Amino acid sequence: MAANNSLPAGEQDLFPPTPPAGSIGNLRKTNISAIGIAFMLFCLVSAGAFGIEEIIPAAGPGLTLIILMVLPFVWARPISRLVAEANAILPREGGIYAWAKETFGEFWGFQAGWWTSMDTYISSGAYIAMVGGYTSQLLSLDAEGTFVVKLLVVGCFTVVNLVGLIEVERISTFFSVLILIVFGMAVVFGLINWQTNPFDPIFATPEAPMGCLVESLSIGIWMYCGYECIAAMSGEYEDSRNVAKGFRIALPLIALSYILPTLACLAAYPAGSWTQWGIDGGFSADVLGYGTIFSMVLGHSGVVLFLVIAIMSQCTIYNTYLASGSRSFWVLSEDNLFPKFIRKVDKAGRSPYVGVLTIAASSLVFSQFDFTTIIEMNIIFILARYMFLGFIVMRLRKMYPVESRPADMYVIGGGKMGVRLYSALAFGIATFTLCLNPVANFFATVAFLASGVVAYIVFKKIYGGLAKENSERYPTDRRTGLAVGDIRRIGLFALIIAGLFVLNVALNLLFLG
Fold it and tell me: Which of 61, 98, 313, 415 is most solvent-facing, going by the fewest CB within 10 Å?
């Protein structure tokens, strides 16, 4: 590769002409195909259209379909392309943590790693909670029986993850195919029974269209989140180029798995029934959803079939999140920014087993919360990552110019304008969604984001951070015990939070009154 001539003269010596070799400690490499990556992505992001039921009565059927059709182009595609390029340059364990550390240093790398870790440890409980809820409906279980089910599911997929990454991929592929078949049946049943205009009305409350958008946008954004999680295991892929190939398969697959069943089922139900949609649709006579079409066509056996698929869907999301999330604190520990116990790997190098076990424990704890509360907590960490992602990729473009890369390395098309457009879309939509909350709720957002700064200061002082391995590249300020320049970075973080607060107040005055 050529030298980094696009960098200012003073910076050319700071970065090598090629990315540094990544380390995955004692973890072994695994051969996962592009199809396997695509199905793991399908499980991380979607695994079925569950959750969209909540958007329909809040936004209106027409707006829901429009949101599902537009977000793949202005949200999912930019994020997936940014992730694909960053991963192509730095296929590292930890994904966005490794990219942020390489581009913006230890402090910002830790923030990205912390946001990823907290997202996983919190959100994993949501999927176990939904498994418990669906199973209790299927088998008429009481609270004790439901907890036993949760325990069994956590135990089962913990074992799968301890066995190795290839087993995670195989289960993801098998479950994904079954889920797609059943949702494909929902499309067919819905189209056969078409009786109403699925876009009517556009807005749930025509006199307050912005209110409808605000009510639904967070869930819509969340439905298309998770693409970056696949990169958390990139250090273990034998051919990291399969990540970009997997995105090309997964992106349209996920979008169609949302749009087509929603369109078909809305069309199959009576006019005006969109107000009755909910997360329990098809499992309750008073609530409509994707499962309702199965009860209409197949009777009680159809409801049972859809409940089984609903359980399977949440299980496979949990399975892949265990794999992705167990690497998050592990890479921080490898860089002396987290306790050493979390970096333990089994002798065969199949899994960071302590990370897997700690997520299993946290998922049981958070599964006691309701689904909405969990999503409100973890969406903060997700959106913070997406606000940062574009800056990382643009910095990587300067560090490792496109013309100096191998011809087969994935690059976002459109040159500088292409990467800037995708970065702006990811940053703008993430920032808008993060700030579109009541002012009182935004204080919780500030506390959640500030937790990363507090954690960094504590762990940096205790474990030494990157300076412990390379004190020349990561010098320590003797007065503070932090990295040189960290006080300035913390000040910048505070200014960013202040700016987000001002935007939050402005959006509240404009949209929420």
Answer: 415
Query: 27 and 235 in contact (C-beta within 8 Å)?
Result: yes
Distance CA 300, CA 207 (A): 40
Sign of torsion, CA 203 207 208 209? positive
Please give the structure tokens belonging to residue 269: 């139900």
CB count within 10 Å of CB 370 equals 11
C-alpha 289/C-alpha 202 separation (Å) is 18
Question: Each residue of 188-212: pLDDT tens digit?
Answer: 999 999 999 999 999 988 888 887 8
The DSSP-derived string for 97-111 is HHHHHHHH-HHHHHH
Contact criterion met (CB below 8 Å) for 260 and 281: no
What single-letter amino acid sits at 40? M
- 3-class secondary-structure state, position 34: helix
Listed range (7-21, 30-44, 437-451) with the worst mean pLDDT: 7-21
Q: How far is CA 274 from CA 52, 212, 299, 513, in A?
A: 12, 14, 21, 27
Residues with Cβ < 8 Å from 180, sequence gap 6 or more?
Answer: 253, 257
Cα distance from N-terminal residue to C-terminal residue, the chain: 55
> For position 26, what pLDDT does the model report?
61
